[in-house]
Amino acid sequence: MINKWVVIVNPTSGNGSAKKKWPSIYNELLFQKFDFDFFFTEYKNHSKEIVKKALKQGFTKIICVGGDGTLHNIVNGVLSLNPPNISEIKLGVIPVGTGNDWVKTYKISKNYKEAIQTISTEKSIKQDIGKLVISSTNKEVYFNNLAGIGFDGYVVNKIHNYKNLGFLAYLTGALVSLASYKKSNLEITFNNTVIKSKSLMLLIGLCKYSGGGMQLTKAPNPTDGLFDISHIQKISLFTVLSNILGLFNGNITNHKLVKNYKTASIKVKVLDIQTTYIQADGELVGFGDFNASILTKAISFIVP
To answer: Rounded to whole angstroms, how far apart are CA atoms 225 and 202?
Structure first.
C-alpha cells in the first residue's frame, strides 16, 4: 500500500476551468502538505484507466479534480476492478465541473482551498452505489448519483449543445426538447409491482441533486440500501414552466403526475422499437432494456 495520493485532473471539466485552476490547486495541495502524484486525463474515460492502474500499483487515496462525469468514471474504474482492498480506498473530490451535482448532497465546498481542507481530514462515509446491466451490450455501469431512462437520457444526449450555459444546460436542454420528445412504452418491474405504460421518464436516485441542482427524487438517502424512484408518465411544457421552482426545491416530486417508490432493484424493458437512452450521473451509457441493483456501502467518499 502506498501512503500517497493519486490526483486525477480532467482539464476539460467546467468548460476548461479545471485546466486554468490546476496551478492554484497544485500549490494549495503542496501548502496543505499533501504527498501526491497527479495525472491529466487525455481522452474520454481516461480517468477510468488511470485509477485502475493506480490501484494496481497500491494507491488507496484518490482525489478527483473535475465534475460529475470525471467522478463517475473514477467510480467505474474502482468497481470494475473490484479490488480486494476496496474497504481501504478513499475518494475525495475537488469540484470544478459544470453541474457539480454529487458534491451538493454532502455540501462539499466549490472553493478549492476548502475542498482540499476537507480531504485532508480523511473523514469518510461509505455510500451505496447503483449497478446497471444494459441488455443490448451486457455492459455493467456503476453510478454514484442518479440514473435515468427516457426523456432524461434524451436530454443528456442533446446537452452538449448547451454546455456553455453551465448549470442551466440541463434545464435549457429539457425545455427545448420537451415538445419534440416521443414517449417510450416501458415495462417497469420492482417489489413485485409491474408498471406497463407510455412513460416520459424514470429516475433512479441515490443522492439529492441532478441536472444542475434539481431535486427530482423525493427522499433519496445514499446509505439506506434503497433507490429512490420517480416515474413520470406525462407532463406538459406548461406544467414544467409553472413548476420551475419545484424542480429545484424538490416540490415537483409531490406533483400528482410524479409517482415515487423505494426499491433495492428494478428491471426495465422497452416495449417499442424507439431508441430509448439511458444516462448515469449525466453520462450517456446506453439504450434499451436494463436491470439496476444496489451495492450497499460500496465506496468510501471523503466528506465534511
So the answer is: 19
